[in-house]
Design brief:
Blueprint lengths: L2 H4 L2 E7 L6 H12 L4 E8 L5 H8 L4 E3 L5 H14 L2 E6 L8 H7 L3 E5 L14 H10 L3 E8 L9 E8 L6 H26 L3
Parallel strand pairs: 1-2, 1-4, 2-3, 4-5
Antiparallel strand pairs: 5-6, 6-7
Helix pairs in contact: 2-7, 6-7
The structure holds 5-O-phosphono-beta-D-ribofuranosylamine.
5-O-phosphono-beta-D-ribofuranosylamine binds next to helix 2, strand 5 and helix 7.
Length: about 200
């Protein structure tokens, strides 16, 4: 029997501000439908009125709300959750805050992020949400897409793990590009997490 099938990996999903929770929902669906060895043990939010909290509650997930006004406090609480829940991986989904180098090394689990463009293009500070799709629209290129990458202490610079390209040549607005890219994000994130966890040396 393969080692991966014996393991259960618990992950924490982090969102800040007013995230929609669509990646959270897509992940939960994928893990359930594929009888995956990965499950979401904690959904962590930074504000109590995030729409994604409703998504997490509907999915029956364990929800934690931790203010990120003081990042040192946030990171300490996150380490507590990771230890309490035996978390193997943190997945950022609409989490716009920078995590410190000290946190990244102390938490000692991989941290992944999904970005709505083909990094290294259209990444960096200020490149999130519609700003990304507006920039792609203005540049008029044929392709955009989604990128899953490891998180370091800068915006969007960690090692790229997977990308999904989207042909946006027939899109008539930045909003339409965003919608198409979001579908690609939903298809890409969960399988990348599963592959990463199940193929990493333990
Ligand atoms: C996604 O577009 C993701 O790429 C970015 O933040 C957005 C989160 O959307 N990092 P949702 O909350 O998952 O719907």
């Amino acid at each position: 029997m393969e080692r991966a099938s014996l393991s259960t990996f618990k992950i924490a999903v982090l969102s800040s501000g007013n995230s929609r929770g669509s990646n959270l929902a897509a992940m939960a669906k994928y893990f359930a439908e594929n009888r995956s060895s990965v499950s979401i043990a904690a959904a962590v939010f930074t504000v109590k009125n995030s729409p994604a909290i409703d998504v997490a509650n509907m999915l029956g997930l364990h929800v934690e709300i931790i203010s990120a006004k003081n990042m040192s406090y946030f990171e300490t609480q996150l380490i507590r959750i990771c230890e309490q829940q035996s978390i193997s991986l943190i997945a950022l989904a609409g989490f716009m805050k920078l995590l410190s180098e000290q946190f990244i090394s102390s938490v000692a689990v991989p941290i992944l992020n999904i970005h709505p463009a083909l990094l290294p293009k259209y990444g960096g500070a200020g490149m999130y949400g519609m700003a990304v799709h507006e920039a792609v629209w203005k540049a008029g290129g044929q392709f955009s897409g989604a990128t899953v990458h490891l998180v370091d202490s800068s915006y969007d610079t960690g090692k790229i793990l997977a990308q999904k390209t989207v042909d946006v040549s027939e899109c008539t607005s930045a909003t339409e590009i965003g919608k198409r890219v979001l579908q690609a994000e939903h298809a890409l994130y969960a399988p990348t997490i599963v592959n990463y966890l199940c193929s990493s040396p333990k």
